[in-house]
Amino acid sequence: AEKGGYKTYVMEVKGSRVYSKLKYESGVHRVQRVPQTETQGRVHTSTATVAIMPE
């Protein structure tokens, strides 16, 4: 990551039926935003790959 972002982020979620609630979130997610430093209002796009794995 260039400025304050994450290149890799790993987390563990525990609880009742967590896998069944999150299993369909696997895949590539796209985030679009207009940074405060963008003077021409252009949209910047980032992607994140999400993997949901049962214990």
TrEMBL record:
<protein>
    <recommendedName>
        <fullName>Peptide chain release factor domain-containing protein</fullName>
    </recommendedName>
</protein>
<feature type="compositionally biased region" description="Polar residues">
    <location>
        <begin position="36"/>
        <end position="49"/>
    </location>
</feature>
<dbReference type="InterPro" id="IPR045853">
    <property type="entry name" value="Pep_chain_release_fac_I_sf"/>
</dbReference>
<dbReference type="GO" id="GO:0006415">
    <property type="term" value="P:translational termination"/>
</dbReference>
<feature type="domain" description="Peptide chain release factor">
    <location>
        <begin position="2"/>
        <end position="50"/>
    </location>
</feature>
<dbReference type="Pfam" id="PF03462">
    <property type="entry name" value="PCRF"/>
</dbReference>
<dbReference type="GO" id="GO:0010027">
    <property type="term" value="P:thylakoid membrane organization"/>
</dbReference>
<feature type="region of interest" description="Disordered">
    <location>
        <begin position="36"/>
        <end position="55"/>
    </location>
</feature>
<dbReference type="GO" id="GO:0009507">
    <property type="term" value="C:chloroplast"/>
</dbReference>
<dbReference type="GO" id="GO:0009658">
    <property type="term" value="P:chloroplast organization"/>
</dbReference>
<dbReference type="InterPro" id="IPR050057">
    <property type="entry name" value="Prokaryotic/Mito_RF"/>
</dbReference>
<dbReference type="GO" id="GO:0032544">
    <property type="term" value="P:plastid translation"/>
</dbReference>
<dbReference type="InterPro" id="IPR005139">
    <property type="entry name" value="PCRF"/>
</dbReference>
